[in-house]
Amino acid sequence: MIVNLQKYTRNELTTEICIIGGGAAGTTLAKEFSDTKFNVTILESGELQENNRIQELYNGEFSYSGLGFTKNTPGALQNDRRRYWGGTTNIWGGMVATFDADDFLERPWIPHSGWPFSKSHLEPYYKRASRFLNVPEDRFSPVPRNLKNKPLDFGDDAINTKIFFNVSNLKLGKIFLDEFKKSKNITVYLNASVVNINLNEGANSITSLSVSPNNLSKIINVKAKVYILATGAIENARILLNSDDVNPKGAGNNNDLVGRFFQGHGYTPTIHNSIHLLLDRKQNLNLYGNHNSNNSNNSNNSNNSNNSNISTKSNMFDILRKSNENHNEDTSNTFGFLRLSPELQKKHKLLNCYMSINAWSPVVGPNKLYNSVKNEYITLLKNLGIYESSKWHSVYSSMLFEQEPNYDSRVILSNEVDWLNLRKAKVSAVISQLQIDTMISSYKILGDILGENFKGKVRLKTNIEELFKNIHPSLAKHHIGTTKMHISKDKGVVDENCKSHYIDDLYVAGSSVFPTSSATNPTFTIIAMAIRLADHLKRTLI
Question: pLDDT (tens digit, 9 = 90+) per residue, 276-294?
Fold first, then answer.
């Protein structure tokens, strides 16, 4: 059933399971409870379509700092999220992959890393998430079955290929809307904005939620057995921090960890020839992007064509999608990145990251940089007596990189309020030295391995500050952390089952519970974790 809360006539609403938020986590949870004995309510702040006034509730401040500078990006918090049914899946690029096994480990060189469980524990839920999204399960094995374009072989396991699957136009709210309309046990309330989590005197249980129907006509009290906060990493923290009438620090924030460890899923767009790869044209790069190597014997013409069609200012996910649409095979939406092995990451004390080969950037045309790198490398090969006449792929590269879970990267509240009279979010992200070292060292290590195998060369711009000033201002739209999961209440906001350490009937869903961010897009893991949480609740609510 779908109900507009503005037309709800009573002042109180009672349910068993109350899910706050209708995005990836919220819709997945509700779907898992479909046709069960449980009465489920979803409170969605927005409507079925985007409403500019409701979208204004996402206004706030965002800045990131590092290398001696601070960069403010007005509008980032509103531009990167969608406050209507389906949430930010309405603008999801559709990149799907599991987190890596080492993402779950406690890595001594990465402070505050480590999940309460291993990747193997999450594998069954990844499989169910694959079926949930209609993604072939084998796509995430090291070499997917029937993959025509094979990963690059560097002669050892130092460089791995990370496989992604692209699912286009998957708006979860739209997909499940008809099912929820007909559901006998699930009710979706639109225009239902939570303005306070009301706690008992001991601040360890929720008495009700104060919910505004957006027309500000009244406040409706929503009561449930279990409450699940699933509004995204920034809004989850914001709602908890604003609910400070009983606990001055905010609901569930006894340990002052709500809002901390904010992470994005960072990437570096192709910028000013900053990262340049020269690769042996004998290598088949089809898995890594559309480089048009088979379209013309005149690489200069194909390169110029690429440059005219793809702008470096374009959205990276759109470019990637267009690139893969040009592959005429059954595995066209499977693509890869280069990744340093876990052993190399450990040896050099680096974060996880993936390096693209042209999937998001135009092939470099014959310019001074190209000629310089090419001639320098050919001369080296000739001097070694191993040079064979061949052509070269000359490409720019971009990087997806893990963010360090930094205690001082956080969401707090500003003094400015929105039209619901809630204090707005103020997000401060930190570019740590570890992130800088990861980006620079990873490319240098890749270059060393290419050179040792006589397969190519990497050149980095020496102005490191320029590289980081051009990091995407909103960290690639993926917000992580802020209600960290940990078995200890001294180190986490929620436990290993995503239940608040301090509020007995409150659970938190979504990427806000992730202890680390990986270099992988989080949506697939959000869905897997939501399925896992639904299973836990089905066992405990019997």
Answer: 676 766 667 778 764 333 3
